[in-house]
Amino acid sequence: MDDILDDTTERLARRILAEREARGWSLAEVATRSGVSKAMISKVERGEASPTATLLVRLASAFGLTLATLLARAEGGGGRLSRAAEQPAWRDPASGYVRRQVFAHPESPIELTEVDLPPGAEVAFPAASYAFIRQVVWARAGALTIEDGATRVTLSPGDAYAFGEPADARFINATEAPCAYVVALCRR
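Request: output the structure for the sequence above.
Response:
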């Protein structure tokens, strides 16, 4: 799986550069739209830095994409059939969480992502990452705490939570056991 994760990081670097060039944007333009420094964007595009989930969400939002769409474009997949063995996985270098794209297709407004969040890990996403989507999180194993703006909930296996209007969000595994959850989102 590490080879797949490493390959995804390399493909992401090429995809981010391609998205920027397709729009005719300078590094400064992407930096302004995303809130990510020009230096960091340049390092990511050259494959010199592994982007975190938070950074990828900021870049995807600047391009008007969801994180899942950016990852699907990087992988070059996105067919109507998504075989488990071919679903791209990516590891966030900051938190260690592993994100597997279960389903994303350009003609479907629905995307499914499975996430494994290690013990003690957390991932934060800015409100801008939710501007184009609505999402529901379904806890599969462990305990997942979600901060959605001023709302804080803890999900147990089988529980689901629907996000409201775009707000800063954090996904937190405050336990000593792994946590797994599924994100179902619909693009607006």
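The longest helix spans residues 2-23.
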